[in-house]
Specification:
The protein is α/β, with parallel strands linked by helices and about 400 residues long. The chain is built from 13 helices and 18 strands. α1 packs parallel to α2. The chain starts with a strand and ends with a strand.
């Protein structure tokens, strides 16, 4: 069963839900002390700072969330690797193109996440003015209200993987409603809690992610703010994402191509969430035990490679790898190095592991027998990129969700 944090403790001592403020007493998974997922350290001669990482569920509203770090660490610089991925760039461009017909010349667009050219260029081509958060992080509730005070409401407000980073989700959703014009739209994309549950995606759990949304919880949060879901879509990007288009209740919406009514895709997603036990929380009961059963598989795979004399290097240094490798007990003895296309990560180490991050060219200069893809959500893209190395004899493997070779 899902564990109570402290069954004997009064409820007022429990952490408060980030959405409904009810006491949260149900713990789904305890990952122990984990390094901060976005700190690629500059040297490996010091211990990366660690914070407790626990996944909780609010029984009152159903929100899946991480416990507060409690130390004031600013984690809003978390990124999702889109700039270094051609497939994610195409994903963002397609989203922007789908939103562009809603707009007219001169319309204002507010994106509470940092500027993403692939997403914003189709909107700007339509004649819209795009206002985005600064490169140093996401806009929180206060930042959104300040943006509205400076520039007014927007006909399209985008929350591109921003809700997951809100300490106070209720305040964030309320601020988004205040930011969107009465005849406007709110476009949201976020990690889907269903993907975490169905895929046992322990690696998506990090300090930077304050919550993991289901459609049921997101719809209720928006409804309470006076916003109605128009359509919802389940996506494969990022290992499983949820995209929602919503409109202020009672808004005019003249000239908008999408009309109010039953949200497209809602029924299918609602059914999937209910069948998985996400809606009532029963599906989370066995999550911790399933994860524990998987915990040693990556280490066993790498130990078998080493025993067979095969050299292994990684591909990618995503934030997800920090949680995965530390939780699985994989360090530089089993995986000496990995490569990443981000210059900011090259020359550093994955926190808590002693695994060095090199430029992708290192795979050409220092060939290995097995390339372990840590950025497994980009497998299809990386399979194509790595074809020349495979042609020379390298084998591809994935670190998660199930470690092993890929066909």
């Amino acid at each position: 069963m899902v564990d109570a944090l402290d069954p004997g403790a009064p409820s007022h001592g429990a952490p408060r839900c980030r959405l409904c403020a009810a006491p949260v007493t149900r713990q789904c998974v305890d990952l122990g002390l984990q390094p901060l997922a976005d700190d690629v350290v500059a040297a490996d001669d010091g211990e990366a700072p660690r914070r407790a990482l626990r996944l909780l569920r609010c029984d009152a509203c159903g929100l899946l969330q991480t416990a507060a770090t409690g130390d004031g660490v600013d984690l809003l610089t978390h990124g999702h690797g889109a700039r270094a991925s051609t497939s994610l760039q195409a994903h963002l461009a397609a989203w922007g193109a789908s939103l562009a017909p809603e707009l007219r010349t001169g319309d204002r667009v507010l994106d509470v996440a940092p500027h993403e050219p692939a997403l914003h260029e189709p909107l700007q081509a339509r004649g819209a003015e795009v206002i985005a958060a600064g490169a140093d992080g996401f806009l929180g509730a206060q930042g959104i209200r300040e943006a509205v005070a400076r520039s007014g409401t927007a006909r399209l407000v985008i929350a591109n993987h921003a809700l997951a980073h809100a300490d106070d989700l209720r305040a964030m959703v309320d601020a988004l409603r205040e930011a969107v014009a009465d005849d406007g739209r709110l476009a949201i994309e976020t990690h889907h809690a269903l993907a975490l549950l169905d895929g046992d995606q322990v690696d998506v759990v990090s300090h930077a992610h304050r919550s993991y949304l289901s459609l049921a919880v997101l719809r209720k949060a928006l409804d309470d703010a006076g916003v109605d879901v128009v359509e919802a879509t389940s996506l494969a990007a990022y290992g499983g994402a949820l995209r929602v288009l919503a409109r202020p209740r009672g808004g005019g919406g003249a000239g908008l191509s999408r009309v109010p009514g039953p949200a497209a895709g809602n029924g299918v997603i609602d059914t999937a969430e209910a069948d998985a036990g996400l809606t009532d929380g029963t599906g989370l009961d066995a999550l911790a035990s399933r994860l524990e059963a998987r915990r040693g598989r990556l280490r066993s795979f790498l130990e078998a490679e080493r025993a067979s004399g095969r050299r292994v290097a990684g591909y990618g240094a995503p934030g997800r790898a920090v949680t995965l490798l530390n939780w699985a007990g994989v360090d530089g003895d089993l995986l000496p190095w990995t490569v990443d296309r981000s210059p900011a990560k090259q020359g550093g180490w994955i926190p808590g592991t002693g695994i060095r991050v090199r430029a992708p060219e290192a795979l050409e200069r220092d060939p290995v027998d097995t390339i372990l893809i840590l950025a497994w959500t980009l497998l299809d893209e990386l399979r194509i990129q790595l074809e020349p190395l495979v042609a020379r004899g390298a084998r591809l493997a994935v670190a998660a969700p199930e470690p092993g070779f890929v066909a």
